[in-house]
Amino acid sequence: MTITPHDLLKEAFAKWIPRLGLAWYDLEVVYYDDPGEILQRFRQADNGGVVPAFVAANWMYADAKISVNLPAFDELDADKIEKIVVHELCHILVNEMREGELHHEERVVTGLTKAFFWVAAAEKDSHG
To answer: Residue 14 — φ and ψ, nearest 5°?
Structure first.
């Protein structure tokens, strides 16, 4: 049986949502694969590129929706897919601090993602 990027995404969300304390959120993950819809939903305003995923969160009500551009994951390995999932979940963690443009938030979320993976690697090394 072949493991698809969709399978890897679902596994990563299932693994990291509880690890990051987001299981109590009303969290929906929606997968898109229609090319027209992807261009409409995932296009970046500043450079015209297409993002692999994005989050719309409302910290006041503990709900969030993660939109996933499924074809963007076709050529990615499991580690890269998992890192993108954690990155997007971190946007939910810091959503309350969002003000204006996202440059600072992206930097914070990237740092948190790296930190979570460093901790996970250290735990794995300590357990053999």
So the answer is: -60, -35
CB 9 within 8 A of CB 46: no
- The per-residue pLDDT string of the chain (128 residues; one tens digit each, 9 = 90 and over) reads 789 999 999 999 999 999 999 999 999 999 999 999 998 999 886 777 899 999 999 999 999 999 999 999 999 999 999 999 999 999 999 998 887 777 788 999 999 999 999 998 888 887 76
Other CB atoms within 10 Å distance of the CB of residue 76 = 16
**Distance between CA 68 and CA 125 in Å, rounded?**
31
Tell me the pTM.
Answer: 0.90
Residue type, 33: D
Contact 65, 56 (CB under 8 A): yes
Which 3-state string (H, E, C) describes 53-105?
EEEEEEHHHCEEEEEEEHHHHCCCCHHHHHHHHHHHHHHHHHHHHCCCCCHHH
Taking a C-beta distance cutoff of 8 angstroms, is the pair 91, 57 a contact?
Answer: yes
List beta partners, residue 29: 66
